[in-house]
Amino acid sequence: MASQIGSSSGNSHILFLGTYPPRECGIATFTKDLTTAIEKKFSPSLKIKIAAVNKNGSNMYNYPESVVYKISDSERGDYVRLAREVNSDDSISCVCIQHEYGIFGGNYGSYLLDFLREVTKPVIVTFHSLLPRPNPEIREVTRQIAEYAQEIVIMNRKGIEILKNDYEVTENVTVIPHGIPNVAFNSQKISKKRLGLKDRVIISSFGMVGPGKGYEEVIRSLPSVVEKFPNLTYLIVGQTHPVVRKNEGENYRNFLEQTAKDLGLTNNVKFYNRYLSLAEIIKFLSASDVYMMSNQNPNQITSGPLVYSMGVGRAIISTPFLHAQEEVTPGRGFLTSFGSSKEFSDSLLTILSDDELRHTMEKNNYLATRRMIWSNVALSYKMLFEKHILISSDHELNLPKINTRHLLRLTNKFGMVQFTKHLRPDISSGYTLDDNARALHASAMLYSRNRDPEMIPLIKIYLNYISYVQNAEGKLFNVVDKHRNVIFDEYSEEAEGRAIEALGYICSLDSIPRDIRGMAEILLLKTVEAPHSYSSPRTVASTVIGLCNYNRYRYSESMLARIRIMCDFLVSIYRDHVSETWKWFEPYLTYDNSKLSGALLHAYMQTQERDYLDVGISSLDFLIGKQFENGVFVPIGQREWCHKGADEARSYFDQQPVEAASKIFSLLLAHQIFPDRGYKERAVGVIQWFFGKNTLCQSVYNDTTGGCHDGLGEQTINLNQGAESTLAYLMSRLSFD
């Protein structure tokens, strides 16, 4: 390799070289979306500069400030001058080239080699296209680009095969998928209504229009489909490609319109001839019942429209170009032969006639593309940059703004609904004390943060729920069905403990209105005084935390004595199970583990009892050893948990947000006691689990909805965004304010 790997410390700039908006080009849009995602997720640790490639020296584009360099694709000297300027710019740590045949000057983009020979910063090249069976000149130019690059990015596995078989390139190749926007999984109804297409069956294609798109084959497939679905509309969305428009005018679009007219489909084929914003693209895709991918280039290795439509959760019918072969698998859509209108017709009739099949394809496509959302793709690029430059951790404290949309969505006038189907509350799942206690705690945290008046009605709803499930003796029942009937067979002492924890927290907040604190105190004391005997360590831990907070509000020696009795119980069971290699309260690690350590630390801060501190810290440190691997937080998976024994093997899958929340709570308590032992840094690492610093490198928190996905599986996230997970995230996030 001609260029030498460099490194830098602190905050770094990555220079992206390629086309950039307002130039109308798919690579320009990709570069804008990727760089925006990187800065959003990793600023100030990573910042972006752009070197924009202009066509034939054109400088007509009104670029944003991030474009600090401009070169002409056809001016060979520009490439060397740019490399020398990059070499002398100490703020630039790495170069990321977005490569597509036709963007760079020279035969098959050979002028780019002049830049690569001269530049001394680490270079990452993303190949957006690769030609199988290339001619010798294409092969040689592409091989040389790969030789100069420290890293090569390909967007799917087909690219790896082509690089290996046709270019003999096998080293330093990473697959990072094409990014997609993170949108909610919704039905077509709302978007159809917004487009004025409420009662129509919608199929669509989007992208820059030009020969080779194959839209005429879709139009020719429609007569037999329209016969069965006369209310069908085919939307061809997007303007004519600028190069096509310059060379051929609107000949291709006129041809499509005439084809539709000849087939009597004028009322069924509609064109939207303009350059669309992302929001407009999503609106059209969301309205579609089926997305049609009729591309006639069998060698296309990357397609933004394909993954965008899958990412919205739409059934796909596609020709078998290379990218589609990999993504459009059985259960996601149908592949048709090139030039076969008959196969388009048959596939459309099959999907449109079977709602269950279509819904299955929609769900499968949405689930398969969660790894592709821009925040996850940005994380993958950041990990690649880190192989060659040092990146500070400053961004880890740059947390997303608080978003209460999903909290509000899950809450009705009675309480918080337990489960969701994807995003929508599933009222058939009913309500639980568990969730409403957490919701009470979270809404009180929100109110104490900025006195948001919107939180007071919510606090009252959750408080009233607790009152609703309390019987005359003070016992709290967990489950209420969708008809608001208390299920008296569903008592959960752990849920009762969480209620005590939330009620105690409410009492401890001076900012909460007096009438609310008074009601919380009545409910808490009635519960505490009820006859019961807790056996679950988690119940005891929650109760300790709640009573410690209550005792800050209304101190009494008798309450302190209660706290001591429960903490002595925790210390006792810890000593029953502790060994040289196992420092825990039970012979297994399951869920919400850190709460046990946190309860003892909470009690130590009130009692100064050394045993509570020693056991709390010892058990917390033991958990840290079990739950951090190479600096990444890895919660115990609920599939098989972790059992004491010779090997003490642990489960990695079905990791739960609630474990992260309790971990953060305990680590921040430990930080208050020992501010120089790195506990806060560990807590920062844990909250990053929600944002993709996890075993899947996928975001568990959904910044579009404000919800949190219900766990991390072996291969993907759980699509549902239920109450427990959403509240676990919200309370974790609020812990850092």
Report on this structure.
- The chain is an alpha/beta fold and 737 residues long.
- It has four domains: 164 residues, Glycogen Phosphorylase B (Rossmann fold); 184 residues, Rossmann fold, CATH 3.40.50.2000; 130 residues, Alpha/alpha barrel (Glycosyltransferase); 159 residues, Glycosyltransferase.
- It has 27 helices and 20 strands.
- A seven-stranded parallel beta sheet has the order 3-2-1-4-5-6-7, with helices on both faces. It has a six-stranded parallel beta sheet with strand order 10-9-8-11-12-13, sandwiched between helices.
Give a short summary of the structure:
This protein is α/β, with parallel strands linked by helices and about 725 residues long.
Q: Which topology of the largest domain does CATH recognise?
A: Rossmann fold
Amino- and carboxy-terminal Cα gap: 47 Å
Number of helices: 27
By CATH, the superfamily of the largest domain comes out as Glycogen Phosphorylase B
**Number of domains in the coordinates?**
4
Strand element count: 20
Fraction in beta strands: 5-15%
Instruction: Walk across the major sheet and give the strand order.
Output: 3-2-1-4-5-6-7
Structural class: alpha/beta
For the record, the CATH class of the largest domain is: Alpha Beta
CATH architecture of the largest domain: 3-Layer(aba) Sandwich
Shape: globular
Sketch the major β-sheet.
7 strands, parallel
Question: Uncertain segments of ≥5 residues (pLDDT<50)?
Answer: 1-9
Nearest-integer average pLDDT: 94
Helix content: 40-55%
Radius of gyration: 29 Å
